[in-house]
Amino acid sequence: MAEFYTAISAEEIARQIADMLNAHNKLTLVHTTPGLIQAPGKYFIEIDKKKVIACQALQKESANLTKLYHSCVLPEYRRQGIAKRLLQIAILNSPTPYVYATIRGDNEASLNMVKTLGFVVAKTEWNKDHQVITVGRRTT
Fold first, then answer.
1. Fewest Cβ atoms closer than 10 Å to its Cβ: which of 2, 54, 111, 115?
2. What is this structure's pTM?
């Protein structure tokens, strides 16, 4: 089987993803390069030249369920279908029959996008000052 290599090291990819998540997602946790390198998730990324412009992670949680998280696209690359494409690739690579994600209630763009991919709302709850919506779907 072929192996593919990129001119960007894993450390540089992790650094860029951490910077992107810290700057553009409304997360309370601060991400670091070592933390992402040690994380158990699998990352799907979009690169423009040597710049990571988008990411989507997934992590198997049980025999039947995989979590999708860290979906982020740099603002200047949004509304081009990149997030949707990465999400579709992640779903195709899910090792389980079901996937889910949590999305802030005020993130209408992400909520609308996942609905076009067949996700349904499974749960809505409050976390401090914002609503968190859990969405899910079958992978096949």
1. 2
2. 0.89
